[in-house]
Amino acid sequence: MGINFHIKEYQCKARWSYTGFKRFRERIIKSLGLTLDKDENGFAFDQDWSKWNKDWFHFLTHSDCSGYLTSSQCGRLSKKLKKLVFKWEPNDIETSYDIEQCLALIEAMEFCKQNKKKMEFS
């Protein structure tokens, strides 16, 4: 069981377990030099949101089992993800997996942007 990305007329190959996707998003947060402070229930309260780009904020705090990203959001995020993913060193299995899946996610996001499709999370 894990997160899936659904796009009409496109088979997204990116796959993470829920735990793996959480780790992936934490890797992004760390790469951006940001922190996501959470309370004991995992909710982000008392956060300084002013440091967050709105696209990153939406992607990194988005539900991993419902909702969607618009084609415009996908286009902006794919560019941002490209800048990060190539900085990661594939020095362990988890990082290598995140890089591989992120590249598949970028490809799907670019398809969404080019074809004006939304990317649904489930």
Task: Supply the key terms.
122 residues, mainly alpha, three-stranded antiparallel sheet, two-stranded antiparallel ribbon, 5 strands
Structure description:
The chain has 122 residues and is mainly alpha-helical. The chain has one domain (2-121). 49% of the residues lie in helices and 9% in strands. It contains four helices and five strands. The chain has a three-stranded antiparallel β-sheet with strand order 2-5-4. A two-stranded antiparallel ribbon has the order 1-3. It is globular. The termini are close together. The mean pLDDT is 87.
Task: Tell me the β content.
Answer: 5-15%
Low-confidence stretches: none
What is the mean pLDDT?
87
Query: What's the order of the H and E elements?
Result: EEEHHEHHE
The gyration radius over C-alpha positions equals: 14 Å
Total of domains:
1
Main beta sheet: strand number and arrangement? Answer: 3 strands, antiparallel
In oligomeric terms, what are we looking at? Answer: single chain
Principal-axis shape equals globular
Count of DSSP-assigned helices: 4
The percent range for helix content is 40-55%
Numbering strands along the chain, what is their spatial order in the largest sheet?
2-5-4
Structural class: mainly alpha
Terminus-to-terminus distance: 10 Å
SSE layout and pairing:
Elements: E1 2-3, E2 5-6, E3 16-17, H1 18-31, H2 54-61, E4 68-69, H3 71-85, H4 93-115, E5 119-121
Antiparallel strand pairs: 1-3, 2-5, 4-5
Helix pairs in contact: 3-4
